[in-house]
Design brief:
By secondary structure, this protein is α/β, with parallel strands linked by helices. The strands form seven sheets. It has a seven-stranded mixed beta sheet, with helices on both faces. Helix 3 packs across helix 7 and helix 5 runs parallel beside helix 6. The N terminus is likely disordered.
Length: 504
């Protein structure tokens, strides 16, 4: 994509014109080549923006996965990537990051067309975050040292990290490019070969990432992309006997299936990053109520609520509940869904008709079970061809209601009142999920004790959703295992080897 208009100055009309002129290649990338599915099958990729067809995409299945695994294994075994000097792999991955930045407008447009998120965030969050992730792990390649164990003087024990081999990465549709980068960057940095299976709802940026990886100098076969349906391409990847590791982000239901597939095949390691029902606890002594309100509203409605770590359960101490809700309702006009290709829009479209219907069912269940609908709960912009839901807030929610227990994955906030912070913590921990949580209080001891008591992979204090590539991301309980981001991600994609040497 080429244009003389600076991205920051583009109007909605500019982005629509670029969308209409975009040529999209939906073929898979296997062994360094663009190829159709072996069967010749395709599926129609529909845009979340307006429902129009973006073109056919290769419907890969077990035969295509087998070809990708064969290519990845050959690339790993002959060392064309894994055996390169760390400094050389670092240079290639830095160039990969550079190419993402140079093609940021095309990548952002593809992301928005696929999943309906506002173009402003595709640019500022998704593309920027993916490039930063690649660059950070590139820098880590030649800075991680192995170990020498403190053994007796007549022996030498070396502890070294080695690439696990062939990594299958299965990523979701809510942050397709960002989630892909969290998997492929550390996996490639460690020297593995990778097969990426994007969601059938969002295949486009994954395919372009493979093109850019090849252009950067990552050898053919090292990074492959097989679009297709989970029950066909995804299951074949998880069942393949020559895949050493599956890194998955998605639903808890599918995460369970992948664990079963591992047991049925070669006991491959499985790293699951799954759902969440995060609790956001605001105490009456909150040091900045306006900040807490802005954070609560902004975090749940960002990305149309389609975030596994969204703080969908808001616990507010009873004395400030009414004031908190009033301030939250006053902010809702700023989150009115708009055209995703309009740079001014802060909320976009739900990804597709199925997800839209699912969110609306949860809204109906909230009303039927006695929660008070304070705002939203309706469809907006039906004439657009996309699926848009007004920001929705329920009051009077109790922990037994469906909307307080199950992950909705939409712009729906449930407000629960509490009288004692210990009760809020017990309710927060009663969930089967444990991805993120937060507490707002001016009392340092209360903050520390509450953070310690909350069973979640990340606990925020007096803020929510702070993020950095240096910090691990993952959850407790049925929110998964293992960690994305930070140096801890290398634990997923490497084996520890001990080598004993007798000296005398």
């Amino acid at each position: 994509m080429t244009t003389n208009i600076a991205a920051k100055k583009r109007t909605s009309a500019d982005w629509h014109a670029l969308a209409n002129s975009q040529a999209i290649d939906g073929r898979a990338v296997i062994d360094g080549r663009r190829v159709g599915a072996s069967s010749g099958a395709t599926f129609d990729n529909l845009s979340a923006v307006d429902g129009r067809s973006l073109g056919p995409v290769a419907r890969c299945d077990g035969a295509d996965v087998a070809l990708a695994v064969k290519a990845a294994r050959a690339a790993f075994d002959d060392g064309r990537w894994a055996a390169q000097a760390p400094a050389q792999r670092k240079r290639v991955m830095q160039k990969f990051a550079d190419l993402l930045e140079q093609n940021r407008d095309e990548l952002a447009l593809l992301e928005t067309l696929d999943v309906g998120k506002p173009i402003r965030y595709s640019l500022a969050v998704d593309v920027r975050g993916a490039a930063n992730c690649l660059r950070w792990y590139a820098e880590a390649i030649d800075k991680i040292y192995d170990e020498i164990a403190p053994t007796p003087a007549n022996t030498l024990a070396l502890i070294t990290r080695e690439a696990v081999g062939v990594v299958g990465a299965i990523v979701p549709w809510n942050y397709p490019m960002l989630m892909a980068s969290w998997k492929i960057a550390p996996a490639l940095a460690a020297g593995n070969s990778v097969i990426l299976k994007p969601s059938e709802k969002s295949p486009l940026t994954a395919l372009r990432l493979a093109d850019l990886a090849l252009a950067a100098g990552i050898p053919p076969g090292v990074f492959n992309v097989v679009p297709g349906y989970g029950q066909e391409a995804g299951s074949a990847l998880a069942l393949h006997m020559d895949v050493d590791c599956i890194a998955f982000t998605g639903s808890t239901r599918v995460g369970r299936q992948i664990l079963q597939y591992a047991g049925q095949s070669n006991l491959k390691r499985v790293w699951n990053e799954l759902g969440g029902k995060s609790a956001n606890i605001v105490c009456a002594d909150c040091p900045d109520l306006d900040a807490a309100v802005r954070s609560a509203v902004g975090s749940i409605f960002f990305n149309q609520g389609q975030s596994c770590n969204a703080p969908s359960r808001l616990f507010v101490e009873a004395p400030i509940e009414r004031e908190f809700i009033e301030r939250a309702l006053a902010l809702l006009p700023a989150f009115a869904p708009g055209d995703p290709l309009d740079p001014q829009s802060t909320m976009g479209a739900i990804v597709d008709a199925n997800q839209f219907a699912n969110v609306m069912r949860y809204i109906e269940s909230g009303k039927k079970e006695g929660a008070q609908l304070l705002a939203g709960g309706i469809q907006l912009r039906p004439e657009s061809g996309g699926h848009f839901i007004a920001p929705t807030i329920f009051g009077g929610v109790d922990s037994g209601m469906t909307i307080a227990r199950e992950e909705i994955f939409g712009p729906v906030l449930s407000v629960l009142a509490f009288n004692e912070v210990e009760a809020a913590v017990r309710a927060a921990n009663a969930s089967s999920y444990g991805l993120q949580a937060a507490v707002w209080t001016a009392d340092l001891r209360k903050a520390h004790q509450t953070a310690r008591a909350l069973r979640a992979g990340t606990v925020h204090v007096n803020q929510y959703d702070e993020d950095d590539i240096t910090v691990p991301f993952g959850g407790y309980k049925q929110s998964g295992n293992g960690r994305d981001k930070s140096l801890h991600a290398f634990d997923k994609y490497t084996e520890l080897k001990t080598t004993w040497i007798k000296l005398g």
